[in-house]
Amino acid sequence: MTDIESRLLAAIAAPGRPSSDYDLNASHPAVKVKTRAAGVLVAISLAGPEPLLFLTKRSSRLKHHPGQIAFAGGKVDPGDADAVAAALREADEEIGLPVAATRVLGTLPSHETVTGFTITPVIGVIDAAFTPVPEAGEVTEVFTVPLAHVLDPARYSVQSRFWQGYHRRYFTVPYGPYYIWGATARMLRALADRMPQ
Q1: Second label for 156, Cα 20 to 30 Å away, from 78, 127, 178, 187?
Q2: Which residues fall within 8 angstroms of residue 144, CB to CB, at 6 or more apart?
Q3: Is the pTM of this model over 0.85?
């Protein structure tokens, strides 16, 4: 077992509460809506000299979150056994990652979004070289970020924008030309906070 795997397993096992889009906005009451279960794959390649995290840039043609940076993943469909199965299925569909190519280490506590999803982050490692194939209807680009970048709390900042009548604060963890923010950045920050040094 590699050092990074040991640390990831420790992060998965660490105590901690679920995160949400409301974490940084305690002064604004959460608007409770019926949530739908979803799973996203925190896909980490161990095939090269340093661990890399796979992320996607969503198509600008999508109705929800166009052009945003996201994990591969989506809602739990009736045919999915659970959020883990949904995350693996969606990664296969969105970036061409075969289900059998991912070793699932476990999950982090769920993340609730203002858009009505309860997302389970699924931590999975990829041992062999993998060339992504973006699904043209949903994904404009698949790219990698050094895992060390998103595991460093100093890389994060809190920004805000005016949305639905008030300023909403959120985490960001930019990397090169990629503006990683919102739920994706919040889930990555939760992982960073749980990782042993």
Answers
A1: 127
A2: 45, 52, 53, 54, 55
A3: yes
- How far is 169 from 109, CA to CA, in rounded Å? 21
Q: How far is CA 41 from the centre of its chain?
A: 6
Q: Can you state the angle between helices 182-194 and 3-13, rounded to 10 degrees?
A: 100
Round to whole Å and give the CA distance between 35 and 129. 36
**What is the residue whose two structure tokens read 């100093």?**
154
> In residues, how long is the chain?
197
Instruction: Match 């693996």 to its residue by tokens.
Output: 88
- pLDDT tens digits, 101-140: 999 999 999 998 878 889 999 999 999 999 999 988 889 8
Q: How far apart are CA 28 and CA 42, in angstroms?
A: 29
Q: Tens of pLDDT along 141-180?
A: 999 999 999 999 999 999 887 666 667 888 999 999 999 9
